[in-house]
Design brief:
This protein has two domains: 150 residues, Aspartate Aminotransferase, domain 1; 237 residues, Type I PLP-dependent aspartate aminotransferase-like (Major domain) (Aspartate Aminotransferase, domain 2, 3-Layer(aba) Sandwich). It contains 15 helices and 14 strands. α13 packs parallel to α15. It binds pyridoxal-5'-phosphate (PLP). The site of pyridoxal-5'-phosphate (PLP) has 13 residues, from α5.
Length: 417
Protein backbone atom coordinates (compact mmCIF):
# COMPACT_ATOMS: atom_id res chain seq x y z
CA UNK A 1 0.00 0.00 0.00
CA UNK A 2 1.18 3.56 -0.71
CA UNK A 3 0.35 6.85 0.87
CA UNK A 4 -1.44 8.75 -1.86
CA UNK A 5 0.22 12.02 -0.86
CA UNK A 6 3.69 10.40 -1.04
CA UNK A 7 2.97 9.22 -4.57
CA UNK A 8 1.78 12.64 -5.68
CA UNK A 9 4.85 14.31 -4.23
CA UNK A 10 7.07 12.05 -6.35
CA UNK A 11 5.07 11.79 -9.55
CA UNK A 12 3.93 15.28 -10.29
CA UNK A 13 2.08 14.54 -13.50
CA UNK A 14 2.83 15.17 -17.18
CA UNK A 15 2.98 18.96 -16.78
CA UNK A 16 3.70 19.22 -13.06
CA UNK A 17 7.07 17.51 -13.55
CA UNK A 18 8.29 20.74 -15.18
CA UNK A 19 7.05 22.96 -12.34
CA UNK A 20 10.47 23.95 -11.02
CA UNK A 21 11.83 24.98 -14.39
CA UNK A 22 8.72 26.41 -15.96
CA UNK A 23 6.38 27.90 -13.39
CA UNK A 24 5.98 31.65 -13.67
CA UNK A 25 7.55 31.79 -17.11
CA UNK A 26 6.40 29.09 -19.52
CA UNK A 27 3.53 27.96 -17.34
CA UNK A 28 1.35 30.17 -15.18
CA UNK A 29 3.02 33.39 -16.44
CA UNK A 30 1.46 36.52 -14.95
CA UNK A 31 0.35 39.07 -17.51
CA UNK A 32 -0.46 42.32 -15.79
CA UNK A 33 -2.51 45.35 -16.74
CA UNK A 34 -5.74 45.80 -18.63
CA UNK A 35 -6.52 43.19 -21.27
CA UNK A 36 -4.94 44.71 -24.38
CA UNK A 37 -2.28 44.00 -27.00
CA UNK A 38 0.31 45.68 -24.74
CA UNK A 39 0.52 44.23 -21.24
CA UNK A 40 3.27 43.75 -18.68
CA UNK A 41 5.18 40.53 -18.16
CA UNK A 42 7.73 40.49 -15.32
CA UNK A 43 7.63 44.27 -15.18
CA UNK A 44 8.26 44.85 -18.89
CA UNK A 45 5.80 45.77 -21.60
CA UNK A 46 5.15 42.99 -24.11
CA UNK A 47 3.08 42.74 -27.27
CA UNK A 48 0.65 39.94 -26.47
CA UNK A 49 -0.66 37.44 -29.02
CA UNK A 50 -2.01 34.86 -26.64
CA UNK A 51 -5.43 36.08 -25.54
CA UNK A 52 -8.65 34.86 -27.17
CA UNK A 53 -10.10 38.35 -26.89
CA UNK A 54 -10.97 38.10 -30.60
CA UNK A 55 -13.34 41.05 -30.85
CA UNK A 56 -11.58 43.16 -28.25
CA UNK A 57 -14.64 43.11 -26.00
CA UNK A 58 -12.68 42.42 -22.80
CA UNK A 59 -11.88 46.06 -22.36
CA UNK A 60 -14.65 47.67 -24.39
CA UNK A 61 -15.96 50.66 -22.40
CA UNK A 62 -19.59 49.55 -22.72
CA UNK A 63 -18.68 46.07 -21.52
CA UNK A 64 -16.74 47.41 -18.56
CA UNK A 65 -19.72 49.63 -17.70
CA UNK A 66 -22.25 46.79 -17.99
CA UNK A 67 -20.06 44.48 -15.86
CA UNK A 68 -19.72 47.15 -13.18
CA UNK A 69 -23.42 48.00 -13.23
CA UNK A 70 -24.36 44.32 -13.06
CA UNK A 71 -22.14 43.86 -10.02
CA UNK A 72 -23.37 47.09 -8.37
CA UNK A 73 -27.04 46.28 -8.89
CA UNK A 74 -27.08 42.57 -8.06
CA UNK A 75 -23.79 41.81 -6.29
CA UNK A 76 -21.64 38.82 -7.20
CA UNK A 77 -23.70 36.33 -5.19
CA UNK A 78 -27.05 36.61 -6.94
CA UNK A 79 -28.82 34.47 -7.79
CA UNK A 80 -28.27 31.92 -5.04
CA UNK A 81 -28.63 28.24 -5.76
CA UNK A 82 -28.84 26.16 -8.91
CA UNK A 83 -31.19 27.30 -11.68
CA UNK A 84 -33.54 24.40 -10.98
CA UNK A 85 -33.89 25.15 -7.27
CA UNK A 86 -33.66 28.90 -6.67
CA UNK A 87 -31.23 30.39 -9.17
CA UNK A 88 -33.57 31.18 -12.06
CA UNK A 89 -33.95 34.77 -13.31
CA UNK A 90 -35.60 36.51 -16.24
CA UNK A 91 -32.13 37.72 -17.31
CA UNK A 92 -30.82 34.17 -17.71
CA UNK A 93 -33.86 33.37 -19.86
CA UNK A 94 -33.50 36.57 -21.87
CA UNK A 95 -29.87 35.76 -22.64
CA UNK A 96 -30.85 32.23 -23.71
CA UNK A 97 -33.57 33.52 -26.01
CA UNK A 98 -31.20 36.01 -27.62
CA UNK A 99 -28.42 33.44 -28.05
CA UNK A 100 -30.82 30.93 -29.61
CA UNK A 101 -32.11 33.52 -32.05
CA UNK A 102 -28.57 34.58 -32.96
CA UNK A 103 -27.35 31.07 -33.75
CA UNK A 104 -30.60 30.24 -35.52
CA UNK A 105 -31.84 27.51 -33.19
CA UNK A 106 -35.21 27.29 -31.44
CA UNK A 107 -33.78 27.17 -27.91
CA UNK A 108 -30.61 27.59 -25.87
CA UNK A 109 -29.51 26.87 -22.31
CA UNK A 110 -26.74 28.55 -20.34
CA UNK A 111 -23.92 26.70 -18.63
CA UNK A 112 -21.47 28.01 -16.05
CA UNK A 113 -18.33 26.90 -17.90
CA UNK A 114 -17.86 25.46 -21.35
CA UNK A 115 -15.64 22.65 -20.13
CA UNK A 116 -18.05 21.35 -17.49
CA UNK A 117 -20.98 22.00 -19.76
CA UNK A 118 -19.66 19.88 -22.61
CA UNK A 119 -18.75 17.02 -20.26
CA UNK A 120 -22.27 17.11 -18.92
CA UNK A 121 -23.98 17.40 -22.31
CA UNK A 122 -22.25 14.24 -23.50
CA UNK A 123 -23.00 12.49 -20.23
CA UNK A 124 -26.69 13.31 -20.27
CA UNK A 125 -27.37 12.78 -23.98
CA UNK A 126 -26.19 9.21 -24.30
CA UNK A 127 -27.04 5.73 -23.05
CA UNK A 128 -24.79 2.66 -23.18
CA UNK A 129 -26.49 1.65 -26.43
CA UNK A 130 -25.45 4.84 -28.23
CA UNK A 131 -22.24 5.06 -30.25
CA UNK A 132 -20.11 8.20 -30.58
CA UNK A 133 -17.86 9.02 -33.52
CA UNK A 134 -15.48 11.93 -32.89
CA UNK A 135 -12.53 13.80 -34.36
CA UNK A 136 -9.12 12.79 -32.95
CA UNK A 137 -8.15 16.40 -32.20
CA UNK A 138 -11.22 17.17 -30.14
CA UNK A 139 -10.80 19.46 -27.13
CA UNK A 140 -10.24 17.99 -23.67
CA UNK A 141 -13.84 18.78 -22.66
CA UNK A 142 -15.11 16.43 -25.38
CA UNK A 143 -12.59 13.72 -24.52
CA UNK A 144 -13.43 13.98 -20.83
CA UNK A 145 -17.16 13.90 -21.57
CA UNK A 146 -16.54 10.72 -23.52
CA UNK A 147 -14.89 9.18 -20.48
CA UNK A 148 -18.33 9.27 -18.87
CA UNK A 149 -19.93 7.51 -21.84
CA UNK A 150 -20.23 3.85 -20.99
CA UNK A 151 -21.09 2.82 -24.55
CA UNK A 152 -18.79 2.49 -27.55
CA UNK A 153 -16.91 5.29 -29.25
CA UNK A 154 -14.93 5.42 -32.47
CA UNK A 155 -12.37 8.07 -33.30
CA UNK A 156 -11.53 9.27 -36.82
CA UNK A 157 -8.17 10.90 -37.69
CA UNK A 158 -8.46 14.67 -37.67
CA UNK A 159 -10.82 15.83 -40.44
CA UNK A 160 -10.36 12.56 -42.38
CA UNK A 161 -13.81 12.31 -43.92
CA UNK A 162 -13.13 8.98 -45.69
CA UNK A 163 -12.20 7.49 -42.35
CA UNK A 164 -15.23 9.12 -40.71
CA UNK A 165 -17.37 7.27 -43.26
CA UNK A 166 -15.72 3.98 -42.20
CA UNK A 167 -16.28 4.74 -38.53
CA UNK A 168 -19.90 5.60 -39.28
CA UNK A 169 -20.34 2.22 -40.98
CA UNK A 170 -19.03 0.48 -37.85
CA UNK A 171 -21.00 2.72 -35.52
CA UNK A 172 -24.22 2.25 -37.47
CA UNK A 173 -23.93 -1.55 -37.38
CA UNK A 174 -23.31 -1.52 -33.67
CA UNK A 175 -26.05 0.99 -32.88
CA UNK A 176 -28.53 -0.99 -34.97
CA UNK A 177 -27.64 -4.20 -33.17
CA UNK A 178 -27.94 -2.53 -29.77
CA UNK A 179 -30.99 -0.40 -30.47
CA UNK A 180 -29.02 2.82 -29.91
CA UNK A 181 -28.22 5.91 -31.96
CA UNK A 182 -25.10 7.58 -33.35
CA UNK A 183 -23.69 10.97 -32.34
CA UNK A 184 -20.86 12.64 -34.28
CA UNK A 185 -18.83 15.25 -32.38
CA UNK A 186 -16.33 17.70 -33.84
CA UNK A 187 -15.20 21.28 -33.42
CA UNK A 188 -16.08 24.32 -35.52
CA UNK A 189 -12.61 25.89 -35.33
CA UNK A 190 -9.81 23.72 -33.96
CA UNK A 191 -8.23 26.03 -31.42
CA UNK A 192 -4.62 24.87 -31.81
CA UNK A 193 -4.13 24.88 -35.58
CA UNK A 194 -7.04 27.10 -36.60
CA UNK A 195 -8.42 24.76 -39.25
CA UNK A 196 -12.14 24.15 -39.45
CA UNK A 197 -14.14 21.01 -38.82
CA UNK A 198 -15.33 20.09 -42.32
CA UNK A 199 -18.98 20.50 -41.48
CA UNK A 200 -19.99 20.76 -45.13
CA UNK A 201 -18.62 17.27 -45.82
CA UNK A 202 -19.81 15.84 -42.52
CA UNK A 203 -23.42 16.87 -43.10
CA UNK A 204 -23.21 15.33 -46.61
CA UNK A 205 -22.79 11.98 -44.85
CA UNK A 206 -26.26 12.42 -43.40
CA UNK A 207 -27.53 11.27 -46.82
CA UNK A 208 -25.97 7.85 -46.22
CA UNK A 209 -26.05 7.52 -42.44
CA UNK A 210 -28.43 8.32 -39.64
CA UNK A 211 -26.67 10.36 -36.97
CA UNK A 212 -26.90 13.54 -34.95
CA UNK A 213 -24.11 16.11 -35.17
CA UNK A 214 -22.80 18.17 -32.25
CA UNK A 215 -20.14 20.86 -32.67
CA UNK A 216 -17.99 22.69 -30.15
CA UNK A 217 -17.68 26.13 -31.72
CA UNK A 218 -15.72 27.81 -28.91
CA UNK A 219 -13.41 29.64 -31.34
CA UNK A 220 -15.95 30.05 -34.17
CA UNK A 221 -18.68 31.88 -32.24
CA UNK A 222 -18.33 35.61 -32.93
CA UNK A 223 -15.48 35.14 -35.40
CA UNK A 224 -16.85 32.99 -38.23
CA UNK A 225 -19.85 33.30 -40.54
CA UNK A 226 -21.45 36.37 -42.06
CA UNK A 227 -23.04 37.53 -38.81
CA UNK A 228 -20.53 35.87 -36.48
CA UNK A 229 -22.92 33.03 -35.66
CA UNK A 230 -20.13 30.52 -36.16
CA UNK A 231 -18.82 27.80 -38.42
CA UNK A 232 -22.27 26.33 -39.16
CA UNK A 233 -23.19 29.71 -40.62
CA UNK A 234 -19.82 29.92 -42.40
CA UNK A 235 -20.56 26.71 -44.31
CA UNK A 236 -24.30 27.43 -44.62
CA UNK A 237 -25.17 24.22 -42.75
CA UNK A 238 -26.27 25.51 -39.35
CA UNK A 239 -29.67 23.86 -39.83
CA UNK A 240 -27.92 20.48 -40.02
CA UNK A 241 -25.88 21.04 -36.87
CA UNK A 242 -28.15 19.29 -34.39
CA UNK A 243 -26.46 20.56 -31.24
CA UNK A 244 -24.49 23.80 -31.26
CA UNK A 245 -22.19 24.62 -28.35
CA UNK A 246 -20.01 27.67 -27.62
CA UNK A 247 -18.31 29.27 -24.65
CA UNK A 248 -18.20 32.92 -23.58
CA UNK A 249 -14.47 32.53 -22.82
CA UNK A 250 -13.28 33.62 -26.29
CA UNK A 251 -14.95 36.28 -28.45
CA UNK A 252 -17.42 37.14 -25.66
CA UNK A 253 -14.47 37.76 -23.29
CA UNK A 254 -16.43 36.50 -20.30
CA UNK A 255 -17.32 33.35 -18.42
CA UNK A 256 -20.11 30.95 -19.20
CA UNK A 257 -21.25 28.94 -22.18
CA UNK A 258 -24.39 27.80 -23.95
CA UNK A 259 -25.87 24.92 -25.87
CA UNK A 260 -28.51 25.41 -28.57
CA UNK A 261 -30.79 22.94 -30.32
CA UNK A 262 -34.44 21.95 -30.79
CA UNK A 263 -36.56 23.03 -27.86
CA UNK A 264 -37.31 19.50 -26.66
CA UNK A 265 -33.63 18.60 -26.68
CA UNK A 266 -32.65 21.77 -24.81
CA UNK A 267 -35.44 21.03 -22.31
CA UNK A 268 -34.05 17.52 -21.92
CA UNK A 269 -30.57 18.89 -21.24
CA UNK A 270 -31.95 21.49 -18.83
CA UNK A 271 -33.56 18.80 -16.70
CA UNK A 272 -30.69 16.30 -16.96
CA UNK A 273 -27.29 18.03 -17.14
CA UNK A 274 -25.80 17.18 -13.79
CA UNK A 275 -23.14 19.93 -13.98
CA UNK A 276 -25.92 22.52 -14.02
CA UNK A 277 -28.54 20.86 -11.82
CA UNK A 278 -26.03 20.39 -9.03
CA UNK A 279 -24.14 23.69 -9.36
CA UNK A 280 -24.83 27.32 -8.64
CA UNK A 281 -26.42 29.46 -11.33
CA UNK A 282 -24.24 31.75 -13.48
CA UNK A 283 -23.81 34.96 -11.38
CA UNK A 284 -25.86 37.93 -12.42
CA UNK A 285 -22.97 40.25 -13.43
CA UNK A 286 -21.85 37.54 -15.86
CA UNK A 287 -25.34 37.34 -17.34
CA UNK A 288 -25.82 41.11 -17.56
CA UNK A 289 -22.30 41.41 -19.01
CA UNK A 290 -22.98 38.65 -21.54
CA UNK A 291 -26.18 40.40 -22.70
CA UNK A 292 -24.13 43.52 -23.41
CA UNK A 293 -21.38 41.53 -25.15
CA UNK A 294 -23.90 39.75 -27.35
CA UNK A 295 -25.56 43.07 -28.25
CA UNK A 296 -22.18 44.55 -29.25
CA UNK A 297 -21.16 41.42 -31.14
CA UNK A 298 -24.42 41.50 -33.14
CA UNK A 299 -24.70 45.24 -33.73
CA UNK A 300 -21.06 46.10 -34.40
CA UNK A 301 -19.94 44.02 -37.39
CA UNK A 302 -16.94 46.33 -37.68
CA UNK A 303 -15.39 44.48 -34.72
CA UNK A 304 -15.35 41.23 -36.68
CA UNK A 305 -14.23 43.10 -39.81
CA UNK A 306 -11.30 44.57 -37.87
CA UNK A 307 -10.41 41.16 -36.45
CA UNK A 308 -10.28 39.78 -39.98
CA UNK A 309 -8.31 42.75 -41.29
CA UNK A 310 -5.64 42.05 -38.65
CA UNK A 311 -5.90 38.30 -39.26
CA UNK A 312 -5.41 38.66 -43.01
CA UNK A 313 -2.52 41.10 -42.59
CA UNK A 314 -0.81 38.75 -40.14
CA UNK A 315 -1.41 35.53 -42.06
CA UNK A 316 -0.69 36.97 -45.52
CA UNK A 317 2.40 38.76 -44.20
CA UNK A 318 3.76 35.58 -42.61
CA UNK A 319 3.03 33.52 -45.72
CA UNK A 320 4.69 36.14 -47.92
CA UNK A 321 7.84 35.90 -45.81
CA UNK A 322 7.86 32.13 -46.30
CA UNK A 323 6.52 31.04 -42.91
CA UNK A 324 4.54 27.83 -42.63
CA UNK A 325 1.19 28.64 -41.02
CA UNK A 326 -0.47 25.34 -41.84
CA UNK A 327 -4.10 25.19 -42.91
CA UNK A 328 -5.72 27.78 -40.73
CA UNK A 329 -8.98 29.24 -42.00
CA UNK A 330 -9.74 31.17 -38.83
CA UNK A 331 -8.00 33.93 -36.87
CA UNK A 332 -5.97 31.30 -34.94
CA UNK A 333 -2.51 31.56 -36.48
CA UNK A 334 0.00 28.77 -35.89
CA UNK A 335 3.57 29.33 -37.10
CA UNK A 336 5.49 26.09 -37.53
CA UNK A 337 9.25 25.71 -37.17
CA UNK A 338 11.56 22.70 -37.11
CA UNK A 339 13.51 22.45 -33.90
CA UNK A 340 14.01 20.71 -30.60
CA UNK A 341 12.17 21.48 -27.37
CA UNK A 342 15.27 23.26 -25.88
CA UNK A 343 15.43 25.41 -29.04
CA UNK A 344 11.76 26.21 -28.58
CA UNK A 345 12.46 27.22 -25.00
CA UNK A 346 15.20 29.57 -26.13
CA UNK A 347 12.98 31.07 -28.83
CA UNK A 348 10.36 31.94 -26.21
CA UNK A 349 13.01 33.50 -23.97
CA UNK A 350 14.42 35.52 -26.86
CA UNK A 351 10.93 36.65 -27.89
CA UNK A 352 9.98 37.75 -24.40
CA UNK A 353 13.28 39.18 -23.16
CA UNK A 354 14.76 40.78 -26.27
CA UNK A 355 11.86 41.36 -28.65
CA UNK A 356 9.09 41.92 -26.10
CA UNK A 357 6.66 39.60 -27.82
CA UNK A 358 4.48 37.29 -25.77
CA UNK A 359 2.90 34.31 -27.49
CA UNK A 360 2.25 30.68 -26.67
CA UNK A 361 4.48 27.84 -27.81
CA UNK A 362 3.29 24.32 -28.47
CA UNK A 363 5.78 21.45 -28.48
CA UNK A 364 5.84 17.64 -28.61
CA UNK A 365 3.63 15.69 -27.82
CA UNK A 366 0.91 18.16 -28.91
CA UNK A 367 2.75 18.56 -32.23
CA UNK A 368 5.03 15.87 -33.74
CA UNK A 369 8.62 15.47 -32.45
CA UNK A 370 10.93 18.05 -34.04
CA UNK A 371 8.10 20.52 -34.68
CA UNK A 372 7.65 23.77 -32.76
CA UNK A 373 4.48 25.81 -33.06
CA UNK A 374 4.23 29.42 -32.03
CA UNK A 375 0.56 30.29 -31.78
CA UNK A 376 -0.65 33.82 -32.46
CA UNK A 377 -4.18 35.03 -31.71
CA UNK A 378 -4.96 38.27 -33.55
CA UNK A 379 -7.72 40.46 -32.17
CA UNK A 380 -9.75 43.47 -33.24
CA UNK A 381 -7.66 45.66 -30.93
CA UNK A 382 -4.30 44.83 -32.50
CA UNK A 383 -2.96 47.31 -35.06
CA UNK A 384 -1.23 46.86 -38.40
CA UNK A 385 1.92 48.22 -36.71
CA UNK A 386 1.68 45.35 -34.18
CA UNK A 387 1.46 42.94 -37.11
CA UNK A 388 4.44 44.42 -38.95
CA UNK A 389 6.55 44.53 -35.80
CA UNK A 390 5.78 40.87 -35.12
CA UNK A 391 6.56 39.71 -38.65
CA UNK A 392 9.92 41.52 -38.53
CA UNK A 393 10.72 39.81 -35.22
CA UNK A 394 9.70 36.43 -36.59
CA UNK A 395 12.11 36.93 -39.48
CA UNK A 396 14.93 37.46 -36.96
CA UNK A 397 13.82 34.43 -34.95
CA UNK A 398 13.81 32.25 -38.06
CA UNK A 399 17.27 33.47 -39.07
CA UNK A 400 18.62 32.74 -35.59
CA UNK A 401 17.02 29.31 -35.53
CA UNK A 402 18.45 28.42 -38.95
CA UNK A 403 21.89 29.62 -37.77
CA UNK A 404 21.70 27.30 -34.74
CA UNK A 405 21.68 30.19 -32.29
CA UNK A 406 19.01 28.70 -30.09
CA UNK A 407 20.98 25.51 -29.54
CA UNK A 408 23.30 27.19 -27.06
CA UNK A 409 22.72 27.12 -23.34
CA UNK A 410 23.79 30.71 -22.83
CA UNK A 411 20.34 32.03 -23.64
CA UNK A 412 18.92 30.24 -20.65
CA UNK A 413 20.79 32.65 -18.41
CA UNK A 414 18.73 35.54 -19.79
CA UNK A 415 15.65 34.09 -18.20
CA UNK A 416 15.02 36.16 -15.14
CA UNK A 417 13.19 33.53 -13.09
C1 LIG B 1 -12.68 24.18 -28.02
C2 LIG B 1 -12.97 24.53 -26.60
N1 LIG B 1 -14.03 23.98 -25.98
C3 LIG B 1 -14.33 24.27 -24.71
C4 LIG B 1 -13.55 25.10 -23.96
C5 LIG B 1 -13.88 25.33 -22.51
O1 LIG B 1 -14.62 26.48 -22.31
P1 LIG B 1 -14.60 27.23 -20.89
O2 LIG B 1 -13.34 28.01 -20.80
O3 LIG B 1 -15.84 28.08 -20.93
O4 LIG B 1 -14.69 26.18 -19.82
C6 LIG B 1 -12.44 25.72 -24.55
C7 LIG B 1 -11.57 26.67 -23.81
O5 LIG B 1 -11.95 27.62 -23.21
C8 LIG B 1 -12.15 25.42 -25.90
O6 LIG B 1 -11.08 25.97 -26.52
Amino acid sequence: MVDIFDRLKNVKGPLGQYQNKAEGYFMFPELEGEIAPRMKFMGKEVLTWSLNNYLGLANHPEVRKADAEGAAKFGMAAPMGARMMSGQTKYHKELEDKLAKFVNKPSAYLMNFGYQGMVSIIDSLLTRKDVVVYDSESHACILDGLRLHIGKRFVYPHNDIDNLRKQLERATKLAEAQGGGVLVITEGVFGMAGDLGHLDKIVELKKDFKFRLMIDDAHGFGTMGKTGAGVGEHYGVQDQVDIYFATFAKSMAGIGAFVASETEIVDYLKFNMRSQIFAKSLPMPMVIGALKRLELLQNNPELKDKLWEITHALQNGLRKEGFDIGHTESPVTPVYFSGSVPEGTNIVIDLRENHKIFCSIVVYPVVPKGVLMLRLIPTAVHTLDDVNETIEVFKIIKKNLDAGKYMSEEMQSMKVV
